């Protein structure tokens, strides 16, 4: 029995790693196409039909590009930093239930690697460790622009993790559990039972914090080409550079699944739409929403970012917790 559980877990881990690593790369193509459409351009067109093979061309370029390490860099730390970013992004997915249970050749498959009763806490905790990747990359690069990018990483991620954590407290008070499966089951009553209707402010706060924690416009100060070359990744190239951005897009999928599971009914059936297809559609819409925002909003200044976090979002999150507590009491 233990052997079969171990084999099943290993297979699930391999599938999640391979599928989301591929999706992370493919999302870069989708992003370029969506942004091009919104800006009345064509985007990638030269490699394959409508540029479909651009992803393969970019992958070949990453594999064959020279992988250099600056002479004055702290080499062990410089080499480990991209691994931290990519590893934490995929480890965080291990507690996320992607689909409802289904049977395959008479065997019940649960599409979650590790069903732990503190799933939300685990995902948030592991994702927060991911900030050490960009931070160490900036500190070890012997480059002042990379150091500034690393410093911005620590400031931005730590600040908005406070907002995302406080935003989730109110929904967790309603559910009474940290398990993502319990949160999903809490919304099993249908569309009207989605937590977004009872916690709209928490939803908005968590989505805004998600933009900041995944380095998406308008909160993309971690790697801000317009100001500091390429931020913490200035000195990186080849596969090490690619690992940072595979981790970034993997985090984007994790955030979209969390939003769907916690606020938008998860993988419960949506009318005539089965639950597995429903959560895929929700995640696809959220991915598109993140891309749409990038095409629509300008960058904001670092002082505006901190002002929004500490003077607007965090007080609103605390007020929402207090209101939820009083409503539950009475």
From TrEMBL:
Question: Its catalytic activity?
Answer: a quinone + NADH + 5 H(+)(in) = a quinol + NAD(+) + 4 H(+)(out)
Gene Ontology CC annotation, any one: plasma membrane
In which compartments does the protein localize?
A: Cell membrane; Membrane
Q: How does it sit in the membrane?
A: Multi-pass membrane protein
Q: What is its EC number?
A: 7.1.1.-
Alphabetical GO biological process terms:
aerobic respiration
Its keywords, alphabetically, are: Cell membrane, Membrane, NAD, Quinone, Translocase, Transmembrane, Transmembrane helix, Ubiquinone
TM segment ranges: 6-30, 77-96, 116-137, 158-181, 193-212, 249-267, 273-293, 305-329
User: Which family does the similarity line name?
Assistant: Belongs to the complex I subunit 1 family.
What HAMAP family does the entry give?
NDH1_NuoH
Q: What is this protein called?
A: NADH-quinone oxidoreductase subunit H
- Upper classification of the organism: Bacteria, Pseudomonadati, Campylobacterota, Epsilonproteobacteria, Campylobacterales
What gene is it encoded by?
nuoH
């Amino acid at each position: 029995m233990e052997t079969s559980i171990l084999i099943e877990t290993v297979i699930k881990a391999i599938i999640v790693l391979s599928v989301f690593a591929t999706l992370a790369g493919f999302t870069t193509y989708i992003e370029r196409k969506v942004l091009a459409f919104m800006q009345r351009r064509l985007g990638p067109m030269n490699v394959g039909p409508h540029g479909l093979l651009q992803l393969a061309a970019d992958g070949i370029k990453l594999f064959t590009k020279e992988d250099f390490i600056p002479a004055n860099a702290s080499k062990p730390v410089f080499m480990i930093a991209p691994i931290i970013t990519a590893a934490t992004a995929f480890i965080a997915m291990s507690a996320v239930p992607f689909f409802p249970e289904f049977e395959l050749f008479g065997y019940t498959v649960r599409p979650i690697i590790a069903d732990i009763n503190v799933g939300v806490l685990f995902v948030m905790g592991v994702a927060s460790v991911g900030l050490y990747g960009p931070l160490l990359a900036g500190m070890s690069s012997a480059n002042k622009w990379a150091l500034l990018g690393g410093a911005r990483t620590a400031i931005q991620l730590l600040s908005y993790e406070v907002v995302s954590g406080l935003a989730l407290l109110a929904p967790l008070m309603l559910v009474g559990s940290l398990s993502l499966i319990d949160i999903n089951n809490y919304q099993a009553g249908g569309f009207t039972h989605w937590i977004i209707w009872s916690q709209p402010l928490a939803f908005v706060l968590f989505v805004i914090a998600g933009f900041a924690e995944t380095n998406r416009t308008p909160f993309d100060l971690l790697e801000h080409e317009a100001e500091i070359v390429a931020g913490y990744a200035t000195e990186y190239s080849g596969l090490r550079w690619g690992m940072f951005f595979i981790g970034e897009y993997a985090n984007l999928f994790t955030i979209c699944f969390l939003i769907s599971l916690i606020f938008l009914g998860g993988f419960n059936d949506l009318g005539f739409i089965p639950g597995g297809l429903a959560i895929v559609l929700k995640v696809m819409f959220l991915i598109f929403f993140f891309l749409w925002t990038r095409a629509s909003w300008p960058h904001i200044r670092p002082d505006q970012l901190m002002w929004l976090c500490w003077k607007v979002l965090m007080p609103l999150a605390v007020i929402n917790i207090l209101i939820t507590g009083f409503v539950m009491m009475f």
